[in-house]
Amino acid sequence: QVQLVESGGGSLQAGGSLRLSCAASVIYTINNYCMGWFRQAPGKERAGVVTIGSYGSTAYADSVKGRFTISKDNAKNILYLQMNSLKPEDTAMYYCAADRSRGSGGYCYTRVEFEYWGQGTQVTVSS
User: Fold this and answer.
1) Cys-Cys with 39: which of 33, 64, 92, 104 at CB 3.0–4.6 Å?
2) Three-class SS string for the chain?
């Protein structure tokens, strides 16, 4: 059983930065999993933000490219999302997700239906 616990959300003004963390309890290491961040804004469907594959390759949504950076600490089993230049349209509940699939970041983003989800952390960006 995989458990994911997000933290780091908050409220801030546009242009600011936040770093989200996701502590994962997994078998061995998160390096064996597809990992990702997703978000759901009010009234919208959940959407992929960024995924990272087994070997560290990544895939980003166009809307966050150049502003968000995913990283992971395989030894500590923590996934991070550094969010810079935040915009009001980034306001959403952010979810960490994991899946036992192994592949590139692009594969994780387009082909994987993630099995495990955290409870989410709210990010609110005001103009």
Assistant:
1) 92
2) CCEEEEECCEEEECCCCEEEEEEEECCCCHHHCEEEEEEECCCCCCEEEEEECCCCCEEECHHHCCCEEEEEECCCCEEEEEECCCCHHHCEEEEEEEECCCCCHHHHHHHCCCCEECCCEEEEEEC
